[in-house]
Every structure is written in C-alpha cells, then in structure tokens.
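Deviation from plan, reported transparently: pyridoxal-5'-phosphate complex.
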Amino acid sequence: MSLPYDRVYNFSAGPGVIPVPVLEEARDNMLNWKGSGVGVMEMSHRGKHYEKIAAAADADCREFLGVPDNYKVLYLQGGASLQFTMLAMNFLNGGSADYLRTGTWGEKAVSAGKLHGTVHLAHDAKGSNYDVAGYDLATYSDEAKFVHFTMNETIQGVDFLGDPPADGRDWICDMSSCIGSRPFDVSRYAMIYAGAQKNMGPSGVALVLLREDLLERIPEGLPPMLDYKVMVENEWMYNTPNTWGAYVMSLVFRHWIDFGGLEAVGRYNDEKAGHIYSAIDESGGFFKVHAQPQNRSRMNISFTLPDEDLTTKFLAESKAAGFHELKGHRSVGGCRASIYNAFPAEGCVALGGFMREFASANG
Ligand SMILES: Cc1ncc(COP(=O)(O)O)c(C=O)c1O
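Because the crystal trials were delayed, the predicted structure below was used instead.
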C-alpha cells in the first residue's frame, strides 16, 4: 500500500485523520495566507485578514452542517470536556436535568453535571458495559431543564444513529465523534457541541451550535470565559481564540461540502464501515462487536477477539501490515477501528481483508 507522504492507515480515535488536501492547503497558508505576507497563526484575531477567516468559518460550518439562522456558531476553547461543565453552569444551574448515560463520555458529562444541579439518569446502560443506546429506552422526568446525551460513544462504539424526537424537550448533544458524518437536523437540538479533533480539525476547539433563545436562561455572574452570552456577544473572541483551529475546521467543512455534503459523506461512511462489519459478521463469532446491532457506530468499531493472546497477536500483525492505532480502550478491551470522515475507504477494504485472513488462519 502507498499513501501520500508515506502516511499509514491511522485508526486513531482522536486526534484523528484530516483530509490530505486540507493539510496541504493549511501548510501553504501557514507561511503566507493568500499572499498577505502573514501566516494564519501569526495574524491578529481582530485584524482584517482573520476577520475574513472567521466569517468563512461561520459560513462554511452553517453550510456543511445545515445550521439554521437562529443558532449561534461558536469556536470555544477547552475541548468538549469543558462543555460538560459549561453547559451545566449555564443551563442546569441548581435545577434538574435528564442525562442518558450510554458510555464513558456520557458518564463524564454526568459527573460534571452533578456539581451544578440534580442529574436524573433517564437511561443508564452502565449495567451492560454500555452496549446499547436509544431514546425509547429512557424514562424522562417532567421537571428536566434539558436532556443531555452523547450521540456516539467513542470508546464503546455505540451510536444512537438518529436525531431525537421533536417532542418539545431541549436536547443537548455531545456529537464529538460523529458530527458531520451523516445528515442530521440541527433544529431538533437546543445545543450541539463537539470537540474538533475527530471529524473537524485540530484538538483544543469545541464547536458549539446554540439555539438563540437559550441565551435568556443564563444566570448572571458566571465567569466570563464560561458564559455563552459573553462568548456570543464577543463572537467567540472575548479572548484570543484558537485561530489556527477554527481556520483548519473551515477548510475541512469546505472539503466535505465539495465532496457532496452530508448526504454523500453519510453514504461514504456507511460503505466504509460495511467493509469492516462484514468481515466481523462473516468470521463465525471469531470477532465480536461490542455494540448491540442497532447501535453500531459508523465511526468507531469496537470489537473483541476470543482471548488476550489472539488480541495481542492481531494487534502486532495488523500493525506490521500497516494498520495503526487499532488497540481498543481498556474498559472494553479488544480492538477499535476509528474511521472518521477523512479515513480512506481503501483502508477499510484492506483491514476487512486482513481480518478475514487472520480469522481463517487463527480461528
Ligand atoms: C464523545 C466524546 N466526548 C467528549 C470527548 C472529550 O473531548 P476533549 O478531549 O476535546 O475534551 C471525547 C474525546 O475523545 C469524546 O469522544
């Protein structure tokens, strides 16, 4: 196999792969942005050049993800993890909210939420080691200010695979590991947030899509850096933002718009995941998927082998064959293939072939 720049098949769960044409464009503009004589990382975030970059970041995000006009687009710092706290400070604020605990990341959001109010676990999949998710599995409470959930659990490879119902609830969703991977309807959510480093760009930035009317609910006196109202009023530039991160994200959005938009990306991801899931399903139980069949993630395929020795052998041989970062998280064990938008389809075909051969040689 030969990938540009001697790159390997990188199945990293995050930071993950970024499209090569984006990296090339970013590389060129790192030194001199569009002939301005100044590199993107070296220009003032309040100057006329970055003003254009920020405007493009807003417009490209809106176009690619289909963000309606009554939503704010924010590029915030502190990654998705800070959002666990920030959303709780702004919108829970001593009240009660429903949380769906469907995996490791949902659990972290729950822990942060508990510091700022009452968390009602409307659904808790911990007992099954987080192999299932579904809106219909939850028991919602009447007094909840919002419902929080993690669309795609990156470690367990468990995905809701669809928008929440339009039932008048204020759904707040962590989409870190699946945003932009398929069509979705922003208007079903009060707020969506996602760390950039899987489908959108460099780490350290959280993209936040916030329905405007939520701003009215924010209490006075929050620390300014943790107050969405302050971030909106200052167009995410209350302080110096991650200028490079937002720039690269804008290029990534444009790349996928040119690819055909969310519909095309969704079809591509289904096809890619299919190459690996079919190798698993045809292995006669040699490989097993962690997620229940109806929740199989198209982004993170968590799977196990019959025992530790075979897992170690598989990881060693697959790495030698050019497939990197396949080790699973210790809470699930086994292996995980993260195949974000920019992961090439050929890599999925190749891994599927490798898995078939491995299963027949060792099964
Ligand atoms: C679903 C999900 N939520 C939140 C996070 C945390 O993101 P960050 O490291 O940007 O804080 C991750 C990171 O892997 C994740 O996968």
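Residues 261-281 form the longest helix (21 residues). We consider this an acceptable substitute for the interim report.
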